[in-house]
Design goal:
Chain lengths: 121, 162
């Protein structure tokens, strides 16, 4: 391993660690979740109110989202890898659970930052 | 193309293909989208050294297309392609500067593979918050890249006669 390899690895590590620490220092509790499908917002739900929400897509695809005890998680999905289902429950601002095959994104937003008041359906 | 080169090329593509398949069989316990060992990248690194830059690119492309058609979807192909192309590009840059060993080149490959995939994910779901996964994926790309680079070096030592 050459010296430059070492410099590369250490710099990347440093940058990553600094970002991770910064994210964790500045994280805030979220207050709502925005569920979007294929880039379009579909629903906004309150993080403090236990609820379940199902998204049904074309070709029988589905994503089941559950809000419980102030966190949201994906309890079931039709995607093949189920990475979204294995994701730990999230509740901090800007955190996301993404189901890429179904193009579903569950994002946590904070009350004061949220510019959206309602969604016209 | 010389027969010898064609044979080597064929072997390496088959190897990259099998490595990709093996990876789908070993789910990593870390549920972060995009984390993989990147064994197939090891073959691309070896191709860089044994076949040449352009051939490494073709090998990577063929591997991605084959794997996507058989084990994935057109959808997953977009992600793999973006990760693979960006990864190849930066491995090429790393190789050209002549300042890195295989470990460094492979680290560049792993890291930019993940960056490429995140960029496409952000574009597809139109959500920039996905970028928050970047630091974790950088670290994982770094670690797997380094390991794969070390492995590739060892293997190339034994392949000196090809």
């Amino acid at each position: 391993m050459k010296k430059n390899d070492f410099i590369l690895i250490v710099s990347l590590l440093l940058v990553s660690v600094v970002i991770i620490i910064a994210i964790n220092i500045f994280k805030q509790e979220g207050s709502k979740i925005i569920i979007s499908v294929d880039g379009k917002e579909v629903e906004i739900l309150d993080l403090n109110r236990d609820a379940t929400f199902s998204i049904k897509g074309e070709n029988g695809s589905f994503n089941d989202i559950e809000i419980k005890d102030g966190s949201v998680s994906m309890v079931n999905a039709s995607c093949p890898d189920k990475i979204c289902v294995e994701h730990r429950p999230i509740h901090y601002n800007h955190e996301t659970i993404v189901c890429l095959p179904n193009k579903v994104v569950v994002e946590i937003i904070g009350g004061d930052e949220n510019p959206i008041d309602s969604i016209a359906k | 193309m010389k027969t010898n080169k064609v044979a080597t090329f064929g072997l390496l593509i088959a190897l990259a293909f099998i490595f990709s398949y093996i990876e789908t069989l070993i789910p990593l316990p870390i549920p972060i989208p995009g984390i993989k060992i990147g064994l197939a990248n090891m073959v691309v690194v070896i191709a860089f050294m044994k076949l040449g830059d352009k051939d490494a690119l073709i090998l990577s492309l063929l591997r991605i297309i084959l794997v996507s058609f058989i084990f994935g979807s057109l959808f997953s192909m977009v992600y793999s392609l973006s990760g693979g192309m960006l990864s190849w590009l930066f491995m090429l840059i790393g190789k050209k500067t002549k300042k890195f060993s295989l470990v460094g080149i492979s680290v560049l490959g792993g890291v930019f593979h993940n960056i490429g995939q995140i960029i496409v994910a952000i574009i597809v779901v139109e959500n920039t918050k996905i970028a928050y996964y970047l630091p974790l994926l950088l670290v994982s790309g770094l670690i797997t890249g380094a390991l794969i680079g070390a492995l590739a070096s060892i293997i190339l030592e034994h392949l000196k006669h090809i």
